[in-house]
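INTERNAL AUDIT FORM
Audit reference: QA-55
Scope: verify that the stored structure record matches its stored sequence.
Auditor: D.O.
Record contents follow.
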Amino acid sequence: MLRKLSRDKHTQPFRGITITRIQPGDLLEDASGDFAFGPLSIIDHAAMKKGITIKMHEHVNDEILSYVWKGTMYHKDSTGLEVPVSPGNLMLMNAGSSFWHEEKVKHDYVEMLQIFVRPKEAKLEPLIQFHEKTDSNRDWYVMVAPEGSKAPLHVRQNVYILDAHPKQGDRLEIPGYRGFQPFLYVMDGEIHVEGQSFKKLEALTDLEKPIPPITAVTDSTIVLFLVDMNASMSMEGTISGRKGKKEQTK
């Protein structure tokens, strides 16, 4: 049976910047109180105005995909690297033992996701990866996958991350891998699945069977996570390791 994570379930934990925090584990109704969906910890859907700077700060044991949908976010880190990240330009920070970075919006409005994954173990080597792709692929594009795969970006966990930008009326099958649970997030637009509507900031899964094909009601951007729910994981991440429903960060 399809499970829906609606917009009213999310929190906005930061002040001075609009970040809607999606807690994927809310779909599981897990009595343990963990907000994660296996090793997929949280998804921060950020909307940032010109002039916003998130000052240099440290991450430890977080795997973080920055997925910009609109505008340009400027990344700077403690190695001296400064890189603009815009739609189609993906950035994956494998924080490992320690990684410091800063984010800035210099010229225009930015809307993006920061996706936090719990790594398989703590204190791994810190890395940063980049990949440029089209930002208009109507079918699925595998952006992130476990180490050893053919994906352009590698996460140190059993998680796949794909995106698609279907046009109005497009019908898409939902890919799957044996032993991996799907979590489908609507970044923008509206889709229908078995007669149910899912709009921007909403998500869905089916815990018993594959998700049926989706139909785009409007031009949409959707992000699919395929997650090994039984994967070993570190709980020592700065963000990803947090555990507890509706946890706030000020």
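Auditor finding: record pair retrieved intact. Residues 48 and 226 are 28 Å apart (CA to CA).
Action required: none
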